[in-house]
Write a structure and sequence with these properties.
With 289 residues, the protein is an alpha/beta fold. The protein folds into two domains: 147 residues, D-Maltodextrin-Binding Protein, domain 2 (3-Layer(aba) Sandwich), CATH 3.40.190; 99 residues, 3-Layer(aba) Sandwich (D-Maltodextrin-Binding Protein, domain 2). A six-stranded mixed β-sheet has the order 5-1-6-13-7-14, with helices on both faces. The protein has a five-stranded mixed β-sheet with strand order 10-9-11-8-12, with helices on both faces. Helix 3 crosses helix 8 and helix 3 runs antiparallel to helix 9. It is elongated.
Length: 289
Amino acid sequence: MMTAHCPAGRCLPAAAFALMSALAAATPAFAQQGGIPLPAAQKSAGQIVVGIETTYPPMAFKDPKTNERAGFNVELVNAIAKELGISVKWEEMSFEQLMTSLTTGRIDMIGTAISDLPSRREKLTFVDYLATGAQPFALAAKAGELKSNADLCGKTVGAPRTTSYMPVTVAWSEKNCKGAGKPAITVNGTAGATATRLELKQGRLDAAVLGPEYVAYLMADEPNTYAFVGEPLNKTLFGLAFDKKNAELRDAVAKATAAVMKNGAYQQALKKFGLERQRISEPTIDAGQ
């Protein structure tokens, strides 16, 4: 057996070497990442506390087969945390609780799909990661008739009356249909996304307007049933939200998000959940309209 030559005082005892090797092997993979400066609170805790609402597929939902948390946002946040070298502590709550939980310090970040709107930036600040908007769609059987947004003029289009999709559709019709001398869209308010889907399938609507991410989910859930009609009627951005006073954490997450967009994890998650149409090339700060 060969014995390595060690200068005096330079070699570790065998037992110490074995202990260090065992500790290195036991260290979680996320702890070996890092490199992006973090606020003292998250660095000390070794984790980020993320609030999430899990009833909006494909962004965040419970897998019906396993009841485990799943979705694009779940995978994105986990990838960001890996880049930061910390773990994620999830706090599930209703959408209405998210902003209060953030501003009172119960959570560090909102990880659910929330639009970066100017009205929200009085208290919050955002790292934008995905395009969204009011997306028209129709039954696949009408794909030949309804190809572009302009084809919606003179048609009956449904949108949930409690969302921004209904007024956005009305405003788009006023400008692009009536303003161009074409018949206006007849906009029917529905009781929600499920009701919109049902009325479309019943033939009570020619088309409907929902978030493009939810339309992508419907298309995956019922293949060959739905088709996009043109582009979103308006464009805004989903953002990871932070208390406005916590710009240091926001900036760290922005750097980690940029890394995730470069290393392929972002593109992989987009493809997995059918969201390639909504990709952006790099994260932005407070850029939603």
